[in-house]
Amino acid sequence: xxxxxxxxxxxxxxxxxxVAVTDVGxxxxxxxxxxxxxxxxxxxxxxxxxxxxxxxxxxxERRQFDIEIDWRLTSGVQRDVLETLYSTxxxxxxxxxxxxxxxxxxxxxxxxxxxxxxxxxxxxxxPCHRVVASDGLGGYSxxxxxxxLEVKQWLLIMEGALPPTLGWDPDRLVL
Length: 175
What we know:
Elements: E1 5-12, E2 15-21, E3 26-30, E4 40-41, H1 44-58, H2 76-88, E5 95-96, H3 97-103, H4 110-118, E6 131-132, H5 148-159
Parallel strand pairs: 1-4, 5-6
Antiparallel strand pairs: 1-2, 2-3
């Protein structure tokens, strides 16, 4: 891994997102600042393409990400599950934890899939918000800490995977 990460941020309807990009690709997306323990640098050549694509997504202009991802901070099984999610669950779709376990080769039980989703280093781009419980939304560790399920619900409504709720505002998180 490079000796540094380029960092940047973007204001979105679900809060300020922070990104970290190595020379390989996107390594971190977070609501709380970069979680990568490398020196942070300002390098718009690395961050601007990622931030632009995230902005397009939130404006409803992008349904798929073509961003290089730096998977080096993920383990083998975790990476396999996240890559399966990234490549098989499209915008507007959802999958249950159990279904993703099957798609990933049945090496991880549904509860384990939930843990992997909670540790996803690049949410939104690798759409862990599209993984739901068989009887409801399930959990979501995205957001600022207290609003995880509201963020998940907002993202699924914005993508058309859930019908809008009364009071839903596409310009900001108000559910």
